[in-house]
Amino acid sequence: MGQNRQWISLDECVNAYIDEAELSNHKYFKLWNLAFRGLNEMGMDSFFAVKSVKLPVNANLTVTLPEDYVNYTKVGVLNQQGEIIPLGVNSKLTSAFDLQPTRLEQTQDDTILTEYDQSGFWWYNYWNGYGMSNLYGVPSGAPFIGSFKIDNANGVIVLSQHFMYDYVMLEYVPSPKPGQEYFIPIQFMEAIIAYIAWKDIRYTPTNRKGSISDKQLREHTYYNELRKAKARYDPINLSDLYEWNLINQRMVVKG
Known about the structure:
Elements: E1 3-4, E2 7-9, H1 10-21, H2 28-47, E3 51-56, E4 62-64, E5 69-78, E6 84-86, E7 88-89, H3 103-106, H4 115-119, E8 124-127, E9 132-134, E10 147-151, E11 156-159, E12 167-174, E13 183-185, H5 189-201, H6 212-233, H7 238-254
Parallel strand pairs: 7-10
Antiparallel strand pairs: 1-2, 2-13, 3-12, 4-11, 5-6, 5-12, 8-9, 10-11
Helix pairs in contact: 1-2, 1-5, 2-5, 5-6
């Protein structure tokens, strides 16, 4: 068994289905591609590991996204404790001229002041019990760090004009590439096998392979195995429930 700690290879799942369905190995390439699609579908929702990279800022205040980028979880800079202080999402930033070195000159108008120019701070939207303070761990009175927008079409992160750092910390969900060896959590093995079994006959005519009821049964089996895999992969931790209950009790007492 191609197992690495609590992980099992995608190849092992494919071979397990071939043995269970009594198929010949000539279908391996098709079935591996089906398993790879299942890896993408389940991994996005459940078990893909988030990558963290430090990326240089381009001269036009953009950052080139990694080739395997799918979606971000955090964009920011580091503090003295090694924590990532997230930048604010700014949908107002334009994606025009993102790939041109003259982007800054072409996307600003110095005759108009923004709320950031007037305040110099970012996100006063957290009530600490006494007054409004900055969110995401930025100390009260800290200087404005900046904001960003993801330009997926051009593959860059667009930074606000105020950004003064030469790097950006990006935590993101990567996309796997076909042809490489991949491992999945062992809890998802049966879900991958059920996914292969369903997709293997999903679009074949009923007079060639599998009836409608068989296709529906395989689809139902897949979603049931997926539900069980998610529950096993992230089970309820009793100590976490106990701690959460204590927090709720304190909140009730204070209220």
